[in-house]
Each structure stands twice: as structure tokens, then as C-alpha cells.
Write the C-alpha cells for this entry.
Amino acid sequence: MVFVPAAECIIGEDNPCEVIRGLGWNDLEEGELSISRREWFAKQHETPRRRMFIPGFYIDVFPVTNEEYIRFVDDGGYHRQELWDEEGWMYIRQYGIASPDSRGNCRDPERGRRPVCGVNWYEASAYAGWVGKRLPTSYEWERAARGTDGRTFPWGNYWDASRLNSYERGLCDTTPVGSFESGISLCGCHDMSGNVNEWTVDLLFDDERGLMRGGTWSTRGWHCRCSHRCGSGKLHRNPTIGFRCAKDAVGS
């Protein structure tokens, strides 16, 4: 883990559409959205750009890897009710869940250093409790990724596809954590743009969708901006979703 000192930080973005087009994505598609992209960003509370004081905390340097998560599985993590909240426990009991989604191939020895994926919000929370940590808040995550100066990506305000694993790389899969040294954040965290979306402890919408940050190997680079926010049902498991852990800093 790395200690992230308390600081006043810039959170969010006033006009994400302008930022994205300024980075070269002029084909910002509306897709199947029922509202404009500008309204969509606002709905996710990325806008407006604001200043916020974030107390000090610790956060994992890397996303949790397959080899780390398998230790939780093999220690009986899916059978220890005290690690789960009521809804999560009912879910894994009802569906007989005892490991991550098989699409992540988490037990493949050649994938040990890749981020674990295919775990839902409850699984990520249970693992975090097992190691004596917790999921980061969305604002802590953004602070660790973005520093204090409101930069667009962990490395600065410019787009560089060589610094992360996103759609533009064409790899169509996760990469081992720490593979992109040039994409490290000012706080010393790796893979905060691209590779896998990361669960935070927070919820995004009134329908209690889990809030994720970071972008993925299958999303375009503009999704990988430090201020970008997206949500998914807390039960959702997908090969593009992983997590990292955080911890309180006493007296920060």
C-alpha cells in the first residue's frame, strides 16, 4: 500500500464532452442513451468540477491480483458468513457462488499477476474485509489517481495510448498489474487508467448501483479519465471489473 496524504483536491470535470473532444475523440457517440452525453455525465455526478478536502488514507499500489484473491477463496472466504453483508451472503448461497466468474481464468498460473476480475461488489467487499482493509471511497480513488491538480489522466492532461491498457491497445484482455510504468500516478499507484474498472465502496444512483472507476481494456481511452464515473449493479460480474483496497490512516 501507499500512504496518500490529506489534501484539498480537484474532483470532477465541468464539461467532460469538451475535454474528450479536445483529446481527439470527435466521434463521441450517444449510443443507446436516452439522454444527451452531457446529461449522462451530470447524472453520474462527474460534473461539476469542484474542490474537496480528502483526509489521508492508504491505498493498494496495484489492483488485487488473481494469486492474491485465490488465497481468499482457498481460505474459505466464500463460506465465512462474517465477511459478507446480508444481501451478498444470500446471493452466494442462492446461486452456489464460490469463486470468481470463470471467464477470468483466475486459477491459470500464467495469469497470477493479472487483476482478478469477474467479482461483484459483494465479493470485493468480502475480500477487503478478509485482509483487514476496505474498498476505497470514490473520492479517495480519484485523489490517488489524479493527485491534487485536477489532471485528466494519472500522467497528465494529454492522451497517450502507450501508458495504459485500453481499447486502443487492441489487446482484448487484461495485462499483469504494473505493466505500464509510464502510467503511474503521482501517488505511486499503477493501473488507475485502463486494465479493469475498479469497485469503490460508494453507490452511484438512487437505484443503488455500485460506483466504479478507472476504465477497462475494452473501453475507449476517454472512459479511463481520472474523473470518469460509471455504475453497475452490485451483483454484476464481468471480465472487465476488478478492485483494489484501501485503509484508514489513523490520525490523518
